[in-house]
Description:
9-stranded mixed beta sheet, 25 strands, alpha+beta
Amino acid sequence: MYWTTWKQRIKLGIVIMCVCLAIFWMYELYLEGLAKVSVWLYSSEAVKEQPVYFRSNIDNKPDSMPAPLMYRKTANLSSCPTVSQADSHISTFISPEELQSIEKALKWPAPPTSIIAANQATSPYTTSYDLQNPHTSYSVGDIITVVITARDDLNNSKTYGGDFFQAKLFDTKLKASVYGEVTDHHNGTYTATFKLLWEGQAKVSIRLIHSSEAVQVLLRHREQDPDKVFFTGVFRGVDHQEKVVCNAQRSERLLKASQCCCEYRHPITGESWFCRRPSRLPCSAWVEHSMGGYQAQLSKLDSSLLHRKYTNQYLPGDITVSVSPRDLNSSTPVKCVPGLDTPSPVGFYLHDTWMSRMCHAQSFPTASKTASCLKNKQVLMMGDSTLRQWFEYLLKTVPTLKKLNLYTSAQSGPLEAVDTGNNIRLVWRAHGLPIRTFMVPHADLHYIASEVDALAGGQHSVVVFTIWAHFTTFPLSTYLQRLAGIRRAIQALLQRAPQTLVLIKSANTGYKDIYGSDWLSWQLDCALRMMFKELPVVIIDVWQMTSCHYSPENIHPSQQVIKNEVDLFLSFVCPR
């Protein structure tokens, strides 16, 4: 009996020992798994590292300054790929089919042969326009068509298209104007179509922005020379600082450096930024960003084609029509809400006020009316300086909005203002890299998609963004990839918070050179409209508002134009 009891105890002990060994063995496997996951987290290109905002790949760090574990080499970057090689992580945001479809839609007609002298290009001095099928009288609501005949400097008629014109109808006395739609017939002729929208005089004005030959110069440099604008990155150690060249792509000029490259990939958006590797500091020492400079290399013929003699010049001509009133069937204007059809033209100026043809646009002449519209709203603005103008305008016109001192850059932000009495919060910040700005901490430069992903949204949230001016120097595919990431974030926001109001400020006119021509801006604007056409968002069409206004051409529109832009924006915030 005694021995039997001890045998049972021994068996029980053996069972307990086996169970303990099994548990210990499983725990070891668990720890090993954690270690593998940890290694993946520090080496994956999709990593989210804390507290560093960007992921950095570092190759061959100096032994004297070893990097922390999270920054140790995860890939060999000594032989960088060329700029034409696309990053695969973007493919989940935009399909190859959509990318090709948009590129095809924006493909610009090229001259059949190359020219050898600027006088063979389309000339604003010999190109003419005439009124097609003139009538004895015109009434409000009628449409007129003007035929443009392109000629070169030698007065030879052009036989192909590709010229970039801008057209408008205006009356100086009434401070009235409207955008004209230009159609290329690919045979050297174009038609500009105008809708007569006010009673009185209406005068035709047509400008040659760029000849077809000049457009090809812009196109070639956009696609083949992405770092004609370059940037500077500041790397800082305890007692040492270095400045290096940075850019959005591993370009040829960046590759010429013996030390290439530090890559910073955002863990959520997948956006990459590249800097030459500093000689004595690790890539993790990157602290500041700024504009570097301009370095476009133009041939003599390229420079001649883009010279102001042939750029942004009014065509000779004098067509004025008298417009009589007409009793039109007046319909109740619809509220300004997302999802409305976009008429052409989308609006017009009368007495210097923008009259929207899309919806019931309101005027906000007083601070109290503006504040009442924004009451209980949190407005997040992200973009460039043309959207920062909205922030500055609201700050100036609504005294109860008080700007906070965040000790940040006035150029790139973030900037914030609050009105505690009306419970208004207004934020503007730059759209992230690439951006041409004074020296700023790169940690202050957040991508739009990243900001939207962190937003809860809801009926009190208003999101406004614009993105184009700082992308005119990069290949179209780079811009489309950025838009794809933003679109994904906006889709997710509207899915989790469908009452969020999302508005997009379109591009505006103003640039006329190799770094930011109106043609380059127009291409990006068309791409943006195509990519967001299926989403319930609002596009504030400031392209038409700036191209037909009487104020001097400027990338930063006049205060009167900004007032009209903001009034239209507010009409969507508090529709009536």
